[in-house]
Amino acid sequence: MAEEPKPGGTSPPPSLSHTTNMIHDNCNCQASCSCNHKPPTKPATQPPTKSPTQLSTQPPTDYRYAAKQPRRALCCCLAVFLLLAGITLLTLYLVYRPHKPYFTVASVTVLNLTTNTSAPPPSVSAAMQFTIITTNPNHRVSILYDRLSAYVSYHNQMITQPVALPPLFHEKHTRVEMAPVLGGAVGGGCGVCGGGGGAVPVAPEVAYGLGMDEEYGVVGLSLVLLGKIRWKAAGITTGRYGIYVKCDVLIRLSKEGVVGQVPFVALPVCHVDV
User: Which of 145, 152, 244, 146 has the alpha carbon at shortest distance from 197?
Assistant: First the structure.
């Protein structure tokens, strides 16, 4: 029989068998723990991500953009050149902008004005001298007149043949006076007057209307000038432009048929188209 421990005394030391069992249980626990325990695994490494700011600063990998850069630079240079050229041309145009010339009729001299309705076709024989004043309003641009011709019309129908006028160089801001003789007729003490031939065939209503106006003493005529003009400024001459001038004159004729300078009933008005 084992002895019971006395109260107040110390417990007896454990036996050898009990100690051996405790060591054996401890070894089994360590073995099972070592079998079930796995070493920690390292997380898989991922490439570092780049921020949008870093991506935008990187050069493009597509070389097609690099190939287009010289072409884009060439287009920019061409656009700048065209812009500068346009500004230069606009400045020159505003400085040397040409204005069309002015025309006026200073006087009219009737040398002959006869209508013939007796034999068909009706015709008109006319010879007149017009004093024309043309003004160049440009201060920096001169005008050159080429292939000028003039004739007289009545109710938009020609009553004199066109007469060629000599070329004219009109200086800057000057006035030039011309006095061509238009038409021609035989008789009246002047032989063949003018340089536009003799009688001109006209429509019957034109011949009758002109005869009635002569009897009344007031006749409305039109002086027409046709030709080409060029502008010259700073040594540069432009191409040819067509010019059309129409001056409406209302003259008073004497019933006695006196030949000479006739007065105006109203001031002549000239329209110029270029």
Answer: 152
**Amino acid identity of 14?**
P
The amino acid that residue 135 corresponds to is T
How many helices (H) and strands (E) are present in the chain, helices listed first? 4, 14
Distances (CA, A) of 132 to 15, 153, 165: 157, 16, 12
Task: Judge whether residue 33 has pLDDT over 50.
Answer: no
Q: How far is CA 45 from each of CA 41, 50, 229, rounded to the nearest angstrom?
A: 12, 15, 88
Query: How large is the average pLDDT for residues 239-256?
Result: 90
CA dist 48 → 7, 41, 42, 51, 152 (Å): 73, 20, 17, 10, 97
- Cα separation of 207 and 125, whole Å? 10
* Angular region, 26: left φ>0, alpha ψ -120 to 50, beta rest: alpha
Confidence of residue 185 (pLDDT cuts 50, 70, 90): very low
